[in-house]
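Q: Can someone sanity-check these two? First one:
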Amino acid sequence: MADEFLVPQEEYLKSGIHIGTKFRTKYMEQFIYKTRPDGLSVLNLQKIDERIKLVAGFLAQYAPEEIMVVSRRENGWKPAGKFAEATGVRSKTGRYLPGTLTNPALEHYTEVKVLIITDSWPDRNAIKDAMRIGVPIIGLCDTNNQSNNIDLVLPCNNKGKKSLALVYWILAREYLKGRKTISKNEDFKPVLDDFMDL
C-alpha cells in the first residue's frame, strides 16, 4: 500500500503534513484520522495522497497561465513561489489586493480560470474575488479551516514550512506529468529543499 503513495510514507510523516491543529471544523472531519492525547487532530495520509492526485489531475486540464496560486501566510511564500516557478503558473504571495481577479481597471488585474489558496482565512480576499467571477477554488485546508467556499479541498498541515514545501513540490511534479511536460518523476529537476525556507 505504501508504495502507491506519491512519495514514500516516511517522507509524508517527516514533513508533518498530517499534523493538524487542536481545533477541528465540521468541514474537515471527513479527512481526520484521529485525535491525539495532546488534543491535536491528525489527518488521514491516504486521503491527503488521494487529494493531491485529484488536485494535480484537475489542474492538468488548465494551461499554466490560467492558474494562480496565492499565499498570504509567510510560510507559504517560498513553496508557492517555487511551485509557480517550476510550473509556469501565476503567483501572488504576500498581501493580496482585492479586485486582482475582478477589476480590469487595476494595474495588477489578472485573468485566471483556477485559483489555489494556501489557507482560507488569510487568503479570504482572493476567495471572495474568485467566487465573484465563478472561478474554481482549490484550497489547502488544515483541520481548523472552513471549507464551505472551497470547490476542491486538499487536506494538509497548511501552517508548517516542511509540509507546505512537500505539498507544493509534489503538486508541481504531478501537474507537469499530467500536462505531459515531463514523463516520469526523475524528469522533475527541482528538489524538495528548493521549495523550503531552511
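And here is the second, same format, sequence then C-alpha cells:
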Amino acid sequence: MKRLIFLSLLMLSPSTQSAPQDLRGTVKIDGSSTVFPITEAVAEEFNKVFPRVRVTVGVSGTGGGFKKFLSGYTDINDASRPMKPSEKQKAKAKHIKYIKFPVGYDGITVVVNPKNTWATELTVEELRKIWKPQSTVKTWKDIRPEWPNKPIKLYGPGTDSGTFDYFTEAILGKSGRSRSDFTKSEDDNVLVQGVMGDLYAMGYFGYAYYKENKNNLKALAIAPKKGAKAILPSLQSIKEGSYKPLSREIYIYVKESSLKKPAVREFVSFYMKHAKNLVKNVGYVPLTPKKYQAANLKIEAFSAKK
C-alpha cells in the first residue's frame, strides 16, 4: 500500500535515541490485511533506527495469522477483531500468554465503482438482504426497483479475515454467516482492483484502502435503519462513532514470551510510541493519547517483572 513515510529521527523520543544501535534479533508478524499498513509503516521506521533487527510482516488475515501465532511461528499478530473464544482456548491449552494492544480505529467501507451513478447509500437492512446466506439478490434492481436490472458482482474478504468476521457479525448478526457466491481475497488490494474494474461491482474492506484509492472508488453512506440518516465513513465519523455499525478498534496481539526478547520488546514499545502519527498517516483513526500511554505502561510493567 502506498503511503507517505514522514517519521524522522528527530521525532524519536529520547529513550529510543539512546537505545543501542547494535540491537539484533528478529520480529515475526502476520495477520490482518487491515492492520498491515500500520505495522508495515512502523517496521520501516523502526528499521531506520535499528537496521540490524529483521522485521517480517505477512498478511494471512486475522484468523490465518492467529493460526501461525498459536503454532509458534510468529511473535505478533495483527488483528482487526478480538481473539475468538476458540482461539483463546487453544492459547490456554498451549500455555501461550499474550497481551492485546489496541492500535487505532477503522471503519469498514462499502464501495462501488466510481461510474456507478445510482447508488449513494444503503441501509443495514439492505446490506443484510445482499449478503445473507442464500440471498436472492442477483441484480441491482433486486435491492431497489429503480436501480438497473444488471447483475451485481460482489467482492469481500476471505473467511480468515477479521474484517469478514466483524462485517458478518455487525450486519448479519453472526460472525461468519454470509452468502458464499462472491469474489474473496485476504488481500484488500485485490478487492480494490476488482471494484475499480467493474461498473456493477460492490465490495467492502478497511477504510485506509478506500482512502488510498478514493479517486477510483465511491464509498456508500450507511444508515443503521430505514429512515435514519445515512453516514459516510470519514476520519471524523469513525472517531466519533456516528458511522454505525461498521466502526471498530483494531489491534496487535503480542506473546509474552516474545516480549522477553529485546528486539520484540523494543519494536512494540516503538509501535506504541509512534502509532498515533503512523495510524493517521496510513488512513486510520488514532486512539487517544491516554490509550497509547496505557499500552506503554503495560510494556514497562512487563519489562519490570520479567
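A (reply): Looked at the second one. The chain has two domains: 9-105+249-305, 109-245. The first helix runs from residue 14 to 17.
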